[in-house]
Amino acid sequence: MTLTATSDTSVFEKTESEVRMYCRTFPVVFQHAKGALLHTDDGRAFIDFFCGAGSLNYGHNHDAVKRRILDYLAEDGLMHGLDLHTVAKRDFLTRFTEVVLRPRGLDYKVQFTGPTGTDAVEAALKLARRATGRTGLTAFTGAYHGMSRGSLEITGSRRARRAGAVTGGDTTFVPFEDGPHGPFDSIGLLERLWADPSSGTEPPAAVVVEPVQMEGGVYPASREWLRRLREVTERYGVLLVLDEIQTGCGRTGTFFGFEDAGIVPDIVTVSKSLSGYGLPLSLTLFRRELDLWQPGEHTGTFRGNQLAFVAATAACELWQRDDFLTGLERGTQRLTRFRAEAAALDPGLVLRGRGMVLGIDTSRAGGADRAERVQRHAFEHGLIVERCGRYDEVLKVMPPLSITPGLLDEGLGILRDALSAN
């Protein structure tokens, strides 16, 4: 059930495929945006706790990033470059190394894949299989890694897999550390399977994991669990792939979600907010000795998005600014306080999160129907928030990292009222 649109949407309904989704939940026509605010063509404003499904961590049209883009356009900078050497790519690689990789002790090679996150995952899977000579993969229940065929093989959703005609494959799924059915010792299960020569399961090429399962219902992996996973994969010669497509670029409070665990993955996939402006850009990062590609073995027409390089360079530099880091810390603290407020409001709610993402699980307090009512109430009062989880029973709260305290409080107030009224 959706609200009736008040501005003209007839061309979308007549011409666009039925596959469209988000516009059914938020049936307005958006025209412009700034910071944490979205504006419609009929003059309404909405606070954005959705952030383009994690592609706009720095908010809409961030001034520092926009200035860099406008300057580049004014100078007729190269717009399409395949994998040619360009100034824009050189600047990005230099800044990304200086600001992101080196301070974290990460000595990775950088592969520019196609424009989206699933392209980075596909490259990671290919590379893991080549490096190990194995074909098998291990993934976790509740996982989401993309909608192309290889990514769907390691995505848990039956609906998504069936839509892509993916029914089997070389993937073994094991329960995540936590989920709708409660905690599970998945690391112990992996150890038993890989150690037993009669388990029927070979050690795979790679284990692919999200440090926080976002689409699966906002389930954070604990530091201890990630450390155990790193130890067991190293022991059995299995590559550890961290999918940071939605958790990366600061969403969990640090640039990468795995940082707090103190581990170094073999391969990392990054996309979504990497460009800092919603421009398509994705990377596969990997240990230097894994760079086994021959020239041209994995290509993509739009792997050299020059404008995205320019924007991403500016976005990296935000991590050197005290005002940005202070704002991120302040926002994280405010969301932590809101967790306590929501729990006191309704003890049946289960709240999970890390950094600047919060999941409000209604499965024990009204279920998906209530989550939909809360979402609709929030939208009617000027707040956009997404739902996730197995049955869309979890409200996924993702404000921009750079949101002002006033707008953050206002949005949380709308959400609190929506929970109280529904």
Mean pLDDT: 95
Give the amount of beta strand, in percent: 15-25%
- Helical coverage, percent range: 25-40%
Structural class: alpha/beta
According to DSSP, the number of beta strands is 17
Main beta sheet, described? 7 strands, mixed
How many whole angstroms does the radius of gyration measure?
21 Å
Report the principal-axis shape.
globular
Order of strands in the sheet with most strands:
4-12-11-10-7-5-6
Report what the structure shows.
With 422 residues, the chain is an alpha/beta fold. It has 14 helices and 17 strands. The strands form four sheets. It has a seven-stranded mixed β-sheet, with helices on both faces. Strands 1-2-3-15 form a four-stranded mixed β-sheet. A hairpin with a 5-residue loop joins strand 8 and strand 9. The longest helix is centred in the C-terminal third of the chain and has 24 residues. The chain is globular and about 60 Å long. The N terminus is likely disordered.
